[in-house]
Amino acid sequence: MTLKTTVDERGIRISYRPVWRTQLRRDEIQDVRLETYSEFIGYGIRFTGTYGTVYNAKGNRGLLIRKKNGRRLMIGTQQPDALLLAVRTYLDAR
Q1: Three-state SS string across 72-92, please?
Q2: How far apart are CA 48 and CA 26, in angstroms?
Q3: Would you say 56 and 62 are in contact if contact means Cβ atoms under 8 Å apart?
Q4: Residue pLDDT, tens place only, 32-56
Q5: Which sign, positive or negative, has the C-alpha torsion 36, 28, 44, 14?
Q6: How far is CA 67 from the centre of its chain?
Q7: What is the pLDDT at residue 94?
Q8: Phi, psi of 43, rounded to the nearest 5 degrees
Q9: Residue 37 carries which DSSP code?
Q10: How many CA atoms lie within 13 A of 75 on its CB side?
Q11: Region 14-18: what's the mean pLDDT?
């Protein structure tokens, strides 16, 4: 299984191939921040009280997204600074 995150002017697309795809429009996103989380969350798609829906393939670093509707979503990443920069670049372009 492969976790792929794509960021562009439309929003963030998350693909956990071959089983799951989802998209967040940029107008749905309230704020974002980097977070270090417990490796005990595991890998795959997890549902937690602390981070909301977690998409994780490896490691314990991710981008925590708080949506305008109050829900949270965590995207695990091996390149946290690059992902944060890409998301903020597009969010600030609103």
Answers
A1: EEEEECCCHHHHHHHHHHHHH
A2: 23
A3: yes
A4: 999 998 877 888 899 999 999 999 9
A5: negative
A6: 11
A7: 57
A8: -115, 155
A9: -
A10: 28
A11: 87
Task: Report which residue type is found at 27.
Answer: D
d(CA 4, CA 76): 10
Alpha-carbon dihedral sign for residues 28, 12, 39, 80: negative
> Quick one: which H or E segment has residue 20?
strand 20-25
Return the residue matching tokens 């439309």. 10
- Number of alpha helices (DSSP H) and beta strands (DSSP E) in the chain: 1, 8
pLDDT for residue 2 = 87
Half-sphere exposure of 39 (CA within 13 A, CB side): 2
Instruction: Specify the DSSP class assigned to residue 38.
Output: -
